[in-house]
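Q: Could you write out the predicted structure for this multi-component system? I'm mainly interested in how the pieces pack against one another.
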Amino acid sequence: MMTTKLFELEVENFRSIRGHMTVPLDAQVVLVHGENGAGKTSLLSAIELALTGDVQALRNADPGYKKQLIHRGAESGKVEIRVQGEAEMERFCASLAREGVTQHSQLDEARATFFTERSYLPQALLGQLLQIYQNSGTGIDSPLARFVARLLGLHRLDALEAGLKPAADVRNVRKIATRWTDTELELGRADRTIVDLARSRRGAAELVTAEIVRLADASRLLEISGPVSELGLEALENVIQTIDAEERLQQAIDRILRLDAVRREAESADNLSEQENEKELSYNQQEIAAALLRWREAHSSRLTALRDRVEVAFPSTTFPQGMADFRSRALELLRSGAIGFREQAARGAAEQARIVVAREERDVAQKQLELLDRELAQIGSNSEALGSALAEITSFIDGDTCPVCERDYGELGRGTLGSHVHEKVRRLSGAAERLLDISRIRSEQQLLVEQLDREIADLEVRQLNVDAELQLSRRSAEHDSLIGELDGLADIVTEGDRLEREDVALRRRLSERDGSDLARRAARETLTAFAREAGLPTLSEDEGLASAAMRLGEALNEQRRGLERRLSTRRNALDAIARARSAIVARDKAEQALKAEERRRRLASDSLDRAQALREDAQTIRKGVDVVRSAIIRREFNDRLNRVWRDLFVRLAPGEPFVPAFSVPKASTRRLQPKLVTHHRDGGRPGGTPGAMLSAGNLNTAALTLFLALHLAVPIQLPWLILDDPVQSMDDVHVAHLAALLKTLSKQHGRQLIVAVHDRQLFEYLKLELSPAQPEETLLAIELSRTHERDTHRLIDRLAWKEETALRAA
Amino acid sequence: MSDSLLVRALVSRLSEAGYELLPTPFRIATVAFEFTAALRGSRSRALDLVLVVDTTTGDFGDRRTERVRQRVEALGRALDVTGSRLAVTLILAGAALAGQVEGLAELCRVLIVDDVTINSDAKPATPAAAAQLDDRIRLLLPLDIPARPAGLEGSSGTMTSLRASLEGKVDADLVERLLSASDTGEKAVSEALGRALNMQLLRREPE
């Protein structure tokens, strides 16, 4: 039997315990009494905290309970328990602050677990018991299942199993691990990107190869030796850059242009030389010059005099110097002048004649006017009015009696009065018409007279006077004379003019001929220089300028074409290098991106692999949970447990015909589905569920004994039983029996008992019942009390063995 | 009158369990008490005083509850007076009315032994009867815990067992995370797993 014993507890400001308090525990039985709120439960919780670093019942209620452990209003506190081991005193403690608990030392895990699961029955746990039996369903969520599961830590296995279930199906894994889907998507994306990048890398690489091939061709054309490779691009480029074809091409083009100029000069020089002989030209010129001189001697003075006269005739006109030109211009002016004079004279004569006629016409018209005026005076001016008045009277004429004078017209014997009046009226109206006609004619005549008057006046004004007429005739004669003289000079002037022109032309030709010889010589030199410069054969003596220029031109053009080809090749090569470079850059970039993407993909894939491994671990854990649970269930829930339980139950409820039992799982390794049954204690058919078969008090008993059975059924690790008010709602009968059971556990099985009770009588009763029966036994009775504003107070009563002397044989 | 078979079987069973039969009458202080049988425990049960009342055939007023009650009361007083720590258990051998038992239970621990078949040798007639008899007075008998069957050794805590069973097989960190979450419930476990997975999925360094 292990002798480990709880020795002493030190509590300071823990939960409802205020102040500092040392509680001795070194007895076989420790009874703790106190009213509700005095700190009984706190005392037991302090033991649990000090030993295990945890208070399970509080944790279940509030995971952040550790901040609430310190006594309200206190700054610091502690719990410390000393445990008397076999060899030495062990010490476990935790310090309390508002921020939480600092655990300094605690039981090892196995013992701590044992303590929590099987040594300490907190009130909260016991409180569930009644419910368990009242509602003894059989499902995994039945209160009993929960109770037992919690008691054995199976609830954690259940939580693990249920909580790890999603690991089995990747769809559920995606739900609990949100990154899973992201990573899968990332991998998919990376795969696509990798394919794309590989494609662009391949494309770029192909481009590089193609450009290198092109470059090799160009390089061959440019006669650059050595292999062309991707690495040698820069060197190759340097070599290509040094090819100076441009300058040479420019030179060639310059030469071709210059050659063209030279050739043109040479050609014109050749032409001249072909036309005439130089000596002949010179002789002709001298002849002409002599003829010209002679001509001038012969005609110059006459011509000059004539010229003076012409210039006098046309003082405002400037005449050309050339003889022929002067003559034609002078003739032109003179002739038009002569025409003018003739017209002027003719016009004067016509006007003279007209003025005579006009005067006569005027006199006639004047006479007719006078005649008309006379007729007008005869006709009189009242004939029309009288005619109208007589016409009106006509209607009043009746017979031949005059309505005016009442004379009888018939008496006259000249017809009737009516016809007489009618005749009179007709005559009067005819006179009126005539009057109108005469008036019209008279105005016309008057107009004619006036016109003639004006014309006559006009003509009279324009009549030349005598001087002007003389002048005109003189000038006209001069003109005619000049024209005659000029006409006579026609041949002479033409000859002179011809001589002058020829003289000038020959002089010019002579001077041109001198110039062209110089040009030919220069051209020849230039061509020779060209040939030398261009590295072509120079001009031979008998080679004509034109043919030499053509020969050189062809050679230079050939050179130019070659250079142009070379330049184009060079340009192509440089272009190919540039393209190859950018393709290399693109390829390398794609390569790098590809590597980076592959790395990313690998990392993501590694992550997923790790997560997958973890997921598999989770499944393994889940399986492990199953194994452990089934082992525990097999280990714990067996006939042996039922036997112990039955024994304990019968002790507390000897009058109960039915005893509770677990329906022991047979093959199931799944979650514990404890089924509570009752057996009739005397055998026979099994009863119903405890809830149906047992009284309320016995249900409580069943729960308590189950805890004790679980404590007793396993190898003992800690010989302690700590019960927090286990007799709530237990009737007196059971309390008495419990006392006996506790005595058995304490005295026969060596358990150190710590029992808290709030009922005073019960406390006293237990004190008596559990009193030391042998010298080595001790009992501690601790009473806790606390009043408001006071520190918790404890009263300790240590009962030692004393010899029982009351009982004597009679 | 000799004791009934049941009383003799009881006494015999208790004696086997270490109880000593007291002479009748016995005396507490100066008062003499007469019971059909009185036994006292030994050693750690030295403070147990067991009284047997034969409600069927007993003398000393055993068949009348009031008389039994009077005697037990008197005994209690005497024990009080002497400051004794003796705890009294009263065994009613034979039938008793529930009301009568209740009254007596206020005074001391009461056990009832009625329908156990006893043979003429004052022994339980069958093993079942023996068990019945034991059950009725189980409280007074030692508590025997059956030995654990082989192969089911080890009693470490559930979590310890689980840890031990997983050690070296799976990621230790994961186990700790899940185990600490397991106390809060399945949702917490799922979340802890999700967090652990997310952590791995977010990690992007080469192995």
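A: Regarding packing and overall arrangement: DSSP finds 22 helices and 14 strands in chain A.
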